[in-house]
Write a structure and sequence with these properties.
Two copies of one chain form a homodimer. Chain A has 596 residues and is an alpha+beta fold. Chain A has helices at 8-18, 21-26, 36-54, 58-64, 81-90, 109-143, 146-158, 286-322, 346-378, 382-417, 429-439, 446-458, 464-479, 487-513, 516-548, 554-570, 573-582, 586-589; strands spanning 67-69, 74-76, 161-166, 182-185, 190-200, 210-217, 230-235, 237-239, 245-248, 251-256, 268-280. In chain A, a hairpin with a 4-residue loop joins strand 1 and strand 2. The longest helix of chain A is centred in the middle third of the chain and has 37 residues, at 286-322. Chains A and B meet through helix 8, helix 9, helix 10, helix 11 and helix 12 of A and helix 8, helix 9, helix 10, helix 11 and helix 12 of B.
């Protein structure tokens, strides 16, 4: 069975040494009291919960899956999930990043994000239950009426109730404008909602007394398309005025999907059979309200993939040190044993280091974005909030798509390290591959992310936000320009920065002629942009490692070598990506549809 | 449920138009009577069997898996597998490529290979039962005594019995030199064999009366390591002198593996508890004898991946034409519908064309190697046999690793085309991804393949065999040098040919200093070599397509566009691969093992 050791040291390195997070957070009125000890203590306790409570029920949860009782419409998650959830709320974990007004601890997004990385490493399927809840909390916090907030937020904060997001219908996922679920006003300010939803994560389970569904539906007079969608909150059990639970609302789980992975999470088909709900936000502005939840969810998906990359790496590295098989081509390295541990083989190391570099790069990026989100939410300065918000918007599709694509590569490499044993369920590593696969698809496919990045976040503002981020890179390049030891990192960083600028301009010009050029280049472009961002963080981490590597702490040596590996073996992927991005639309569109 | 349409036209194109296979085969004494009609008739009938009998039980077989009765040690494959197998032997299919002396039809390897591509598209898990049998047939045909051949070959040819290869043990897979299973002589020419084997595909089932296990084991006086391994044939039921079945041999299935995919195949743990067998080939030369089977199996694995790539492509293409979602960025393409079919989106086309190009390139390569294998086996000229054999040896690791890596990429892309629906079992496409994953690992991991290619097949003979293949490329480049329409294909082909030559020399030089440099570069190198080979075949196919595209047959237009796509979007991967291959060993070895 796989093991999980929370990477506390690397998390602390990123927070305290790379991002100087405490000083940054202290500038924000909401976090003026934060300190290093609090952060470290929370990380340590969260790590214990992840490794001791969640990791042991991950493999068994995958094998068992969830079960639906078709007569009662009730769902049982795998053994141990309910008990783990009870411990989770007992520990007060759901409240970590929530508003003190509703019982939350008001800690930074950054810390909540670090907690979730660990939960995801230990058990992605389980973590989706509280993860979806937190998303529902955020949407209601941002767009709910006072009444809705009073009714739902304390329970979501305590974790006594969980939440879902009910968007997808059988005929529409990416294109929510096509959705058909109907909401009819009942005249008392509430609505009767009827329709069928699918792919509802954490959609039904017996771990809590009530489930708060956020449902997209159409009002009777709604315009067609995405401008006619409204958001409703629909509880599983109606809530009485005194907060006690009332009658069962007809929002039923009618089926569970058989999925490639995340078996422990109940992916529900939900039938709304005249269920009663209330409107969240403005009529016909539901998609906008839901985007609060969706953007958080996209960062969350990157974080899921970061978690899987880390845990897959840890286990594959342990296996590679333990498993003996063949001799090094350069001669025996463990002559006392009948064969060498497979970590002597260069390609085994390459697979391991790929996962390690993608984990460390992903962590730096994820934490940077989380800290920036804290600024966007809590800065006292409106300009700083706006600037931070723009940067989060720019980086969100990269966090979601780049980290999830990387996790697919990394977990598969880690599985390969196990040889045939990796294909066997008991190894646990094939589960990481299967679980990670959904991350490339849900919350907006990675193609959708790439269009969001290149079309909406970059070209629509003529690259203004990208340029601001580019200035940070340029400043660092400038700053280290005379540092001899940094040249191996600074030169390729400067180079990829220039190339992204040129590539962006070139695609922008082509897109004037034909907007489909954006679609032809976007996926390649996103990976190039992702590498630029990773190169920036690896260069910055290498700088710290170079300064401290003689401290006697081998952590810095390892960090330096991982950065070197990244520049030598992963960043060069951009050479191909830039070519294919530049080769444009025509090789994709020549073939008539009928010939496919 | 996925559908499968045998790609008869493309198979016939490769055989008859690209490879001119019938004329080539007619030169071989064993196949002097072959003709186009026979080939096409066999393909058509084989395709019917695959699509009508095997495809319908693929998804259900995945869900059901195999069941072991722990008291009787008997295994039941999924519903329908036994009946399909009965139809398979009734149709005489196992005999297709077998020696007429033992009841075979003596048809070319090429044709058998084409049959297997279709069987694998329809149902890889099922196809492994006859596939392993055919491997056992080949090993016994090449190395068995007359007695063994007489006893086993007719039954393997008719399909009444099936075969296995029992190599792996819990502590050794890649490194068979470590194996521990013991063979003790019984004095009557037979041996008592004791040990534990794992990962035995098709290791136990109830589809036939007897199973012929080929088992690697050590004789009492055997030298340590891989030079002390002998090969034995161990039937499930002993065979009496009159050919009837005798008593049960103690070779028992003690467990079935829970795997990521190929659930319909019984991957057995096998206990040999003093089972009686006879020696195949020379004592202590078992690995060499087994390599006959293993080389065939490696080509077979490439063929499995080709099959999965093709079927995944077909289904994803159909889905992309049917599923409507969003509008093209360049404006509505199906204004009469509420949204456009997703095939209008450039990235959806990119994913589909990637799978299509990998299928068509893989088919050209696979069939070329199969035809070359026919020459190696059946040419009347010893020099031609030797030359063909060398070329097959060179290309085998490329067929195995390049096509299986490509299938992993392609099936995942096809799954992505389905959006969230691809993650659901019922779509069938996630099964293709899971099934394809084992192909990168078994029969020698893809890392092992890359070391075989670069170390053994290329550097050990100073690139002599590679140069011969390079001359074919150079001749084609020369021949088309003045053909204006071919420049878009010929120039990059010449370029990649040059680059492979330079890269090979450079790695060879480095390897003199440190043999581990081979291990650092080999995986990247194999993909570069694979692309060179694909570029060669796509250029040749493009030439035919250019000549015939005005014939009114849109097949040639599609072929031309697929070739253009390949050169524009896939071949450029080599730009990165060459860089990472050249960046060498040091970024992989700097980190101390303890720091992983």
């Amino acid at each position: 069975m796989p093991q999980y050791n929370p990477p506390l040291r690397d998390m602390q390195f990123v927070m305290h040494e790379l991002l100087n997070a405490v000083d940054e957070l202290k500038q924000l009125p909401a976090h003026a009291d934060i300190d290093v000890d609090t952060i470290n203590a929370v990380l340590e306790e969260g790590g214990k919960f992840a490794s001791e409570v969640l990791a042991p029920i991950n493999l068994s949860g995958d094998l068992e899956g969830c079960t639906l009782d078709k007569t009662t419409h009730e769902v049982k998650p795998p053994k141990g999930f309910k008990e783990a959830y009870a411990q989770y709320i007992e520990g007060g974990w759901p409240a970590l990043g929530c508003d003190p007004e509703y019982g939350g601890q008001g800690l930074p997004v950054l810390l909540n994000q670090a907690l979730y990385e660990m939960l995801n490493s230990a058990n992605q399927a389980w973590t989706m239950y509280p993860g979806l809840s937190h998303g529902a909390y955020e949407a209601l916090h941002a767009h709910g009426t006072d009444e809705q907030k009073k009714t739902y937020l304390p329970k979501l904060t305590s974790g006594e109730w969980t939440g879902t997001m009910c968007l997808t219908e059988p005929h529409c996922g990416t294109d929510l404008g096509l959705l058909r679920t109907k909401a009819e006003p009942l005249g008392d300010g509430s609505y009767k909602i009827t329709g069928s939803k699918i792919f509802i994560s954490a959609g039904e389970h017996d771990m809590v007394d009530n489930i708060v569904h956020l449902v997209l539906a159409r009002l009777p007079d709604a315009p067609q398309g995405s401008k006619g969608i409204s958001l409703f909150v629909v509880p599983k059990f109606k809530v009485n005025a005194d907060g006690s639970l009332g009658e069962r609302n007809p929002v039923f789980c009618t089926g569970l999907e058989h999925k490639m992975g995340i078996h422990g999470n109940a992916t529900a088909q939900i039938a709304l059979d005249g269920a009663v709900g209330t409107l969240v936000g403005q009529p016909n502005k539901g998609l906008m309200a839901m985007f609060v939840m969706m953007n958080a969810a996209r960062l969350g998906v990157g974080n899921q993939s970061l978690g899987l990359t880390e845990v897959a790496y840890q286990n594959a590295a342990a296996y590679a040190k333990d498993r003996i098989q063949m001799r090094a081509l350069s001669g025996p390295k463990a002559p006392d044993k009948p064969a060498d541990p497979i970590i002597v083989h260069p390609d085994v190391r390459k697979m391991l280091l790929t996962a390690r570099a993608y984990a460390e790069g992903g962590r730096a990026l994820s934490m940077y974005v989380a800290l920036t989100l804290d600024k966007a939410l809590s800065s006292g300065d409106a300009d700083e909030r706006k600037e931070a918000d723009d940067e989060v918007a720019l980086l969100t599709p990269i966090v979601k798509a780049f980290i999830s694509d990387n996790a697919w590569i990394a977990t598969s490499h880690c599985m390969q390290v196990y040889g045939g044993h990796g294909y066997i369920h008991e190894s646990g590593v094939e589960q990481f591959v299967r679980d990670s696969r959904i991350n490339m698809t849900y919350e907006g496919t990675n193609t959708v992310q790439s269009l969001d990045l290149l079309g909406r976040k970059i070209l629509s503002n003529n690259g203004a936000v990208l340029k601001k981020f580019g200035k940070k890179i340029a400043a660092f390049v400038e700053e280290e320009g005379t540092n001899e030891a940094m040249q191996e990192f600074i030169n390729p960083l400067a180079d990829i920065g220039d190339k992204v600028t040129k590539l962006t301009t070139e695609i922008g010009m082509k897109a004037f002629q034909n907007p489909d050029e954006v679609g032809a280049a976007a996926v390649d472009y996103l990976r190039v942009a992702g590498h630029m961002v990773f190169a920036y963080f690896f260069a910055r981490m290498a700088k710290i490692a170079l300064e401290k590597k003689d401290s006697g702490d081998s952590f810095y040596t390892a960090k330096l070598y991982t950065a070197r590996f990244y520049f030598a073996k992963l960043l060069p992927e951009t050479a191909s990506l830039i070519r294919t991005a530049r080769s444009g639309l025509s090789p994709l569109m020549e073939m008539d549809e009928a010939l496919f």
